[in-house]
Design brief:
Helix content is about 25%, strand content about 30%. By secondary structure, the chain is an alpha/beta fold. The chain has 9 helices and 19 strands. The chain has a 7-stranded mixed beta sheet with strand order 12-11-10-9-13-14-17, with helices on both faces. The chain has a 5-stranded antiparallel beta sheet with strand order 5-6-2-1-7. Strands 4-3-8 form a 3-stranded antiparallel beta sheet.
Amino acid sequence: MNEKEYPAACKLAGLTPDELRNTIVQKEKLSPTLTRMEIRAPLIARAARAGQFVMVWVGEKSERVPLTICDWDVDKGTITIIFQEVGFSTKELGQLEEGEDIASIAGPLGKPTEIDNFGTAVVVGGGVGTAIAYPIAKSLKKANNKLIVVVGAREKSLILLEDEMRKIADELIITTDDGSYGRKGLVTDALSELLESQKVDMVFAAGPLPMMKAVAMTTQPYGVKTIVSLDPIMIDGTGMCGGCRVTVGGKTMFTCVDGPDFDAHQVDWDELRARKAYYFDEENKANANALVDGARK
């Protein structure tokens, strides 16, 4: 195939076959379990917006893994993902090195986060969820909001994107559960103080499910609209399988096509927690049995 085969109006026009390979341009280990990858994906980079995600197939026989687009560079034709190696599929992805190709990446998927000039916006990122929060924070700042960012993690080594957040935020608050960096405590402790001390117009949160639920419970008494980025079990990412369904405001919604952003005060958190735990035993078995010396059986 030659790039000259594509007509000028085609999205592939001007791209060479090499540029259409999903090659890992840069890989960085952020911690023993956190990895950042910059991947060549020019078509996705052109279309990406804050809050969207991609479906990654490491190999032809791999599971699909939904991962948020943390950043993108249209000129370089690359997207950046950050993932935590917690299950078989993310560990398989983490084994790839710079220069290697990923079999397939589909996206951008999901509705972009609704960005406006809300006034004072607080963005809360917990653990690897900070990778989701970062492009949202950037877009809010670009829309001239007063931007306050709260980043939290269990301990110092799990704090993500501090430098990047500091460059765009009017105020950055770091919290760790064990007090090894920043303030000791939870992100909701800092959020409560902000809500008490000043007018907050909008809150966005991305992170572990218990954290997002706690953020929702924190802001609800203040009547501050709060948006969360949900990450339920997802299989195809196109709304066909129904695996990512959640109940929001009493209605069944599909995270991949109706979200991933939802009104935090309308989410059925108990149902979501039960659905996320449904395949917990199978995932543990996959972790224990599927990898032998870093390769599939």
